[in-house]
Each structure stands twice: as structure tokens, then as C-alpha cells.
Amino acid sequence: MAGAAGGQGEGSGRINTPAEGALRAVRSLVELQETERATQLYEELGAAQRERLRREAAQRPVKERRGLVEVLRRARDFLGAARLMDGDGEDATVADLYVQSGQYLEAAEAYLRARESERAAAAFERAGALERALEVYRSLGARESMAQCLVRLSRPFEAADLYRELGQTHAEVEALGGVKPEDARFVEAVVRISTLLDAEGFTHRALAVVADALSSSEEARSDESLVTEKARLLRRMGMEAEAEAMLLRRAAGASAPAANGYRFLKAIPIFGELSLEDMKDLYRLARQVVIAPGTVLLEKGSAGTGLFVLMDGTVEVFSGPESDARHLNTLGPGAYLGEISLVQDAPVSAHVRARTSVRALRISRTDFEHYLDTHEAAALRIYRLFTQNLAARVRALST
Questions:
Q1: CATH number of the domain enclosing 292
Q2: Tens digits of per-residue pLDDT, 361-381?
Q3: Dihedral angle over CA of 5, 8, 14, 20, nearest 10
């Protein structure tokens, strides 16, 4: 046998065996239970020789295969060892070897034969065979694992129903969060998420989810249930005026809030020459406000407090605060009030009261003065246009 195995090369630690005798040498070493030397020689074989050795060994009796299996395991040829053992009745061991080799589908089938269903399901899942994994988890009654598979299979509602049964609200929300806007049940998912978050005390987060959904598509904006849900959340947060304003827009046929106010602010004549950067800086100064019906926005004779840009709702302009004051105008989205107070310290010349719930942008005089101090070029442009507009008004009054 020593002749078959060959001698050691001086100082090399390698087994110097002619290629044509290598297969026989490995088999001989296995028979002699020289496992370490057999392992070293097996590792030095070429891929084709290793495959031939495994193929020949597969035809040998089980007892003879066992020795070579140990050699393959030590050589970390886990796949070869698994296939050499497969069918010998040691399915759990075979499955473990398949796992070590990264062959999860074969491992799963072997675990099933070994009646280790939970490990089989996990192996199916790792292999990406999610339907098979789901089937096994279902047979085990493993609902949490079933839910995880359903999420990965893009079946979020089924997953959410299981999480609800398990009392795992956060997981139910996460599952429903996977529903995309183009899904036919998108709105249903959003309303359900909102209800869950609100019940858990996360009303602000629920409102953000609904608001984001409303901005996702035209279909979502036209859905009555989303609008109703947003109004409910606003009321829960004590924002009755905002809820009322939104419902009024809905009743009037508006499909969404009037953009974000930027285009209205940009349209005001005295801002007509501002650069994009300066315009954006000005817009960031603005604060969105909701004004209840009947509230006085500007009081005649009082000091001006800044600019209002109407985005939703209507206001009425009167000659004064008296009950018999003359009605001068009714203004709606896009109208602006108080712009003179931004650049001139003068009393308000009219009395303005909200006719409906109003949503508006407001820039205070204090914030605007700071803006002028920090935007010199913008200040020059604003003052020039203000002067031109004022001169045009004077000429119109004198003709």
C-alpha cells in the first residue's frame, strides 16, 4: 500500500503520486484508515479526478463509501460528501452537508425526509422557494414565519391579517406599508395603517402617512375615504379649522390643496424680479396658517403685521369694521393682502374678514425685514418694483 500511496517529497509535505495512480491511492489510504493522508491527496487531485472518484465510489457498498465521505468532509467538499451519502438513510446528516455547501433546496428536501420540518422550511426560505416554505410553515402552524414568507411573496394583506391575529401591530403596519400606490388596494392599506397608528398613540405619524398617500397620485387624491381619514386625524389633534377647510375644499370639488403656495407667492408683483435662490429663501420664511370663518385678518387703522397669501377659502374686504360698512370685494386663492406693510409702516386701509375657513401663507414684517437685511440684491429689486407699482397707482388715481 505504501507503494501505491507514494513517498513524501523532501520538505514539501506533498504526496508525490503519479496522476494515473492517484485514485487508487486515495481508495487504498481510505481502506487503511489513513484519513489525513487520504484527505491531503484528495485535495491535490484535479476537479475531473475528484468527480471520477466520487462517481466510482457511488457504485460501491455503503460501508466503503463511509470512509470516503469522511475524507470529503475533512477536505470541505461538503457537496460531494452529501451526494455520496444521499439515499443511505442518514437524511439529517445529508441535509446538514447540503447546508454547508450552500445547496439549500437539496437540504430542504433532505430535512423533509428526516422529518425535520422546521429546518426544511427555513432551508426552503433560504433557497428562495418561498411557496414551498409557506406550505411547510402552514403545516406546522408557524404563523409568524408564514407572515414573513407572505411579505416576501408580496402578499401584504395576508401577512397583515396574520400579524393582527398575533397581536403584532408594528409588524402589521410594516407589512401594509409594502403596498404600492399602483395597487388596487392601496387606499385600503393606508387607511388601515392610519387607524392602527392612531390607536397606538402615533396620530402625528398616521397623519403623515395619509398626507403622503394623498400626494402620491390623482386617484388617491380623489378618494373619499382618504380625505375623511385625514379630517378625522386633524380633529383628533384639535385642528378643527384645518379639518373643516379640507372638507370645504372637497365639497367644492377641489382634488387637492392649492399646491404649496410657492406659485402664488412668486406671482406677487413686487417679487417679480427675484432670482430662484432668493425666491426660495423668501418662501422658506412663510408660515402656513389656517384661519377660522369670521376671523379678522386685517383691521382697518391698525398697524400692518405682514403679508397674507390666500391658498384656499375666501375673505371679504370691507371699508371698515362697522356692521354697515361697505363691502368692497371678495377674494379667493391667489389673492394677497398686507404687502404694503412689508415695506412701509402705515395703518391698514381696509377691514378684512374670513368668509370661510382659510388656508394662507403668512410672512411677518419682522421676518421680511431680516430677509431684506440679508439679501441686498433682492431688497433693491423689491423696493424698485414697489416704487414703480406705487407710482402707477398714484397715476391711476389722478386721471
A1: 2.60.120.10
A2: 899 888 898 888 888 898 899
A3: -30
Of 291, 297, 290, the closest CA to residue 348 belongs to: 297
Cα–Cα nearest to 104, from 84, 82, 85: 82
Q: Are 363 and 282 in contact (CB under 8 A)?
A: yes
pLDDT digits (tens, 9 = 90+) for 140-178: 999 999 999 999 999 999 999 999 999 999 999 999 998
Residue 296 lies in a domain: yes
CA distance 371 to 366: 9
Rg (CA), the chain: 39
Q: How far apart are CA 19 and CA 44, in angstroms?
A: 10
Cα 160 to its chain centre, rounded Å, is 17
Look up the domain containing 347 and give its range.
262-398
Lay out the sheet containing 315-318: strands in order across.
296-298, 351-354, 315-318, 327-331
Domain-embedded: residue 199: no
Last residue of a domain, one of 76, 94, 115: 76
Counting the structural domains of the chain, the total is 2
* Residue 128, C-alpha cell as written in the block: 428562495
270: DSSP letter: G
Confidence check: pLDDT of 15 > 70: no
Does residue 217 lie within any of the structural domains?
no
Q: Which of 49, 76, 103 is the last residue of a domain?
A: 76
Length of the chain: 399
Q: Residue 190 falls within a domain, yes or no?
A: no
